[in-house]
């Protein structure tokens, strides 16, 4: 039965194939390509000098630096924790394993705005830990720690979810063989486990970094949108646009769009070069 269905699918008429391809291309053109082209066209509409002034303005530079700093902290943290979680889930059996998997997927099912609000309720001035933090002169919400926490939360699943199915598909035979030959657990991890999943790890890091630098909802709630202090690039773009500074907003947006294009190119090259490995990592 599957073979017959597959044969029918391959035997569709040329007209049907053309219509399906045309619909797909029209969708991509309308909802992906045109908005992306519009960003770059509007960014350069007033010339290079206006573009350069928009992205080198002090608040813009502060937003760029803050975005890079948050990503530079959140992404490595998620790499370490994601690898540890994937290793534990794929290689060991323990009580609460299914719960851990569900918790890893939690950020996918919770609105980023809600997650940001949770951090405000926990660490804000009127939150559960607010009085204690204020008494010790510590600030999380409306400061860098809050941005990092919000970003870590929304980006955490990307690394772990790429690694878990790949590690599960590989099994534990290689690790057991290395242990039998006398290798230490850490040597097994760095010499056997990590090299076996390096491309899935890289794939997850790409997605994690792109989301970290482009995150808006959760970061908007915990930032307070303080110019030059807690504004990341997406928040700075919103402020510029709301103040009718469209050219400047599109100029900064073009930097994020450029990051998206770089991520897309790397993702495409990775899938082209290591498609079989990545496909195996997605099989449960």
Protein described:
The chain contains 15 helices and no strands. It has 284 residues and is mainly alpha-helical. The N terminus is likely disordered. The complex is composed of two ATP-binding proteins (CysA), two transmembrane proteins (CysT and CysW) and a solute-binding protein (CysP). It is a multi-pass membrane protein. Its main location: membrane. InterPro entries: CysW_permease (IPR011866), MetI-like (IPR000515), MetI-like_sf (IPR035906), Sulph_transpt2 (IPR005667).
Briefly summarize what is shown.
The protein is mainly alpha-helical and 284 residues long.
Record the SSE blueprint.
Layout: H1 2-10, H2 14-43, H3 47-56, H4 58-91, H5 97-109, H6 112-123, H7 130-135, H8 144-170, H9 173-180, H10 185-196, H11 198-214, H12 217-223, H13 233-242, H14 246-273, H15 275-281
Helix pairs in contact: 2-14, 3-14, 4-8, 4-11, 5-8, 6-8, 6-12, 8-11, 8-12, 8-15, 9-10, 11-14, 13-14
Subunit structure: The complex is composed of two ATP-binding proteins (CysA), two transmembrane proteins (CysT and CysW) and a solute-binding protein (CysP).
GO molecular function: ABC-type sulfate transporter activity
Function: Part of the ABC transporter complex CysAWTP (TC 3.A.1.6.1) involved in sulfate/thiosulfate import. Probably responsible for the translocation of the substrate across the membrane.
The H/E string reads: HHHHHHHHHHHHHHH
Query: What is the structural class?
Result: mainly alpha
Count of spatially separate domains: 1
Uncertain spans? 1-7
Named at the architecture level, the CATH assignment is Orthogonal Bundle
In whole angstroms, how far apart are the ends? 23 Å
Shape: globular
CATH class: Mainly Alpha
The number of distinct β-strands equals 0
Taking all residues together, what is the mean pLDDT? 86
The number of helical segments is 15
How would a textbook summarize the main sheet? Answer: none
Radius of gyration: 23 Å
Stated plainly, the CATH topology is called: MetI-like fold
Into which percent range does the helicity of residues fall?
over 70%
Approximate strand percentage: under 5%
- The CATH superfamily appears as MetI-like
């Amino acid at each position: 039965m599957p073979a017959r269905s597959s044969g029918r699918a391959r035997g569709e008429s040329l007209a049907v194939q053309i219509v399906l391809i045309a619909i797909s291309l029209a969708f991509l053109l309308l909802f992906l390509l045109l908005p992306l082209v519009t960003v770059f066209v509007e960014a350069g509409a007033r010339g290079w000098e206006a573009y350069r002034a928009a992205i080198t303005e002090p608040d813009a530079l502060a937003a760029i630096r803050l975005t890079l700093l948050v990503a530079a902290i959140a992404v490595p943290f998620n790499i370490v924790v994601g690898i540890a979680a994937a290793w534990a889930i794929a290689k060991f059996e323990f009580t609460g394993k299914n719960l851990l998997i569900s918790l890893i997927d939690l950020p996918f099912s919770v609105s980023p705005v809600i997650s940001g609000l949770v951090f405000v309720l926990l660490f804000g001035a009127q939150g559960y830990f607010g009085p204690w933090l204020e008494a010790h002169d510590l600030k999380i919400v409306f400061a860098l720690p809050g941005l990092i926490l919000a970003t870590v939360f929304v980006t955490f699943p990307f690394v772990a979810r790429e690694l878990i199915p790949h590690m599960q598909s590989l099994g534990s035979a290689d690790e057991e063989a290395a242990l039998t030959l006398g290798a230490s657990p850490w040597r097994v991890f760095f010499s056997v486990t990590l090299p076996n999943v390096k491309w899935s790890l890289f794939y997850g890091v790409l997605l994690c970094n792109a989301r970290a630098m482009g995150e808006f909802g959760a970061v908007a709630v915990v930032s307070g949108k303080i110019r030059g202090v807690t504004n990341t690039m997406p928040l700075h773009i919103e402020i510029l646009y709301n103040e009718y500074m469209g050219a400047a907003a599109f100029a900064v947006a073009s930097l994020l769009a450029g990051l998206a294009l770089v991520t897309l190119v790397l993702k495409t090259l990775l899938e082209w070069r290591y498609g079989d490995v990545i496909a195996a990592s997605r099989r449960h």
